[in-house]
Structure formats: C-alpha cells, structure tokens
Amino acid sequence: MEDEYMHDEDNGVEVEEEQHQDSSPTRGNTPLEPELEGGNFIKVSAKGQVKSIAGKIAHSAREGDPPAALCIGAECLNLAVKAVAIARTYLTDDGIDLSFQPAFRDPNREKKSIALYIAKTKPRAPISTVDDVEMPIGSQSKPQVVAGALAARIREQRTVCLVAIGIDAVSNAVLAIGNARLYLEQDHKDIRAAPSFVQVHKNGRDLNAVKFTLTVENI
Could you give a GO molecular-function term held by this entry (predicted)? Predict the structure, then answer.
C-alpha cells in the first residue's frame, strides 16, 4: 500500500519529522505512571488470547474504569488494539463505547513500550470526530513521519482516520498516534483513537484491516 501521507496533498512536499520538546513531563515517560499505581492495568502478552483480553476490558468498563493495557513490541500492540475493538462490540448493548490514548513508557520513543490508556468517557471539548481523510499505514511506514503529517492535518482542522493491515502496520499506527499527541501538546490539542475492524478492497481482494477513528479535543 502506497504511503500517500509521506507527501503534502497539495504541493507534494515531503512532511518532515517534528521535534518534540521535552521541557515538560509527558505521561508515560516515567518509570511508573501515577495512573498505574492503583493496579488498574493488564499486561498484554504476545501469546495472549484476544477475546479473553477483550472480555476483561469490557467487564472492567461495566464495573467502573477500564484498565490500561501495557504492551511491549508490535505483536502485543496489535493484540491490545484488536482487544479494544472487540470489547467495543461487547459493550454495544450497555451503551458504552471505548477509545484509547497511547503513551510512551520509555523516553526512547523508538522502543515499542506503550501504555494504552482506555477510557469510556466522552472526550473533553470535542472539536471533530475524524473520519474524512483516510491515511493508509503500512508495515514500512515511519511512525514519526506519519505523526508529523497527522498533526499537520489536525492543525488544519482536517478530519483524518488511519487504516492499517497487518501486525506491523497496526503497531506503526499506534506509534504514530502517540507521537502526534506529543507534537500537538504545544497546540493544546490531544487525540484519542477508537479502533474497529473494516475490510479494504485491494488488488481485487477484500482484506481485513483495523481502522482508527480519531477524536480531537482541546486540553
């Protein structure tokens, strides 16, 4: 799948990676986040059962606050995202929806050590529910470059969603969203993602994909 987001849609200029200033602490860049001290989290293993994880998330959401999902590596991230997508379907009859915000747990953002902070509450001061410009994410996509393009479109008040096929692509999408959150701090904006399963028609075939519907909010 062609990485169309690598270039500006209007003038074909490559989007450069943004630089995040670490002058203020960012949630997820400390050894133990305050949000996790109460023990409301699950550690996602690459060998975990996705429906079992989804069931735990849905049960916690019905009883109170859903847990954070702690992930290390592409396979764990892929599993956690799919579990959230499945949990959303489990909660439909309860009138509950879920979204998540990824945060880096290591100062080195190249490492795929991520906490997915799952929430069932509506975003604060929503600006838009993004589902207009579709950005395809591939296994070779560079998360920080994608994040720069994503942040630029959000600043332009463009509506965006990400679509990923495969483990590495899903992982890259999560990393891109995490980096975009950092880039948007100076704009006093934040984003959260609601994953769902979709089919993408490509080369005469229908392929299963994960769609990240993003919501932008003021902070």
Answer: nucleic acid binding
In three state form, how does the secondary structure of 85-117 look?
HHHHHHCHHHCCCCEEEEEECCCCCCCCEEEEE
Tokens for 75, please give them: 């396979």
Closest C-alpha to 67, from 77, 78, 58: 58
Strands 68-72 and 41-43: parallel
Instruction: For residue range 116-167, list pLDDT tens digits in order.
Output: 999 986 534 444 444 478 999 999 999 999 999 999 999 988 888 999 999 9
CA 136, 219, 74, 194 torsion-angle sign = negative
Q: Using alpha carbons, select from 152, 133, 115 the residue that is nearest to residue 18.
A: 152
Instruction: Out of 67, 84, 119, pick the residue that ends a domain.
Output: 119
Any domain includes 28: no
In angstroms and rounded to an integer, the radius of gyration of the C-alpha atoms of the chain is 16
Mean pLDDT of the chain: 83
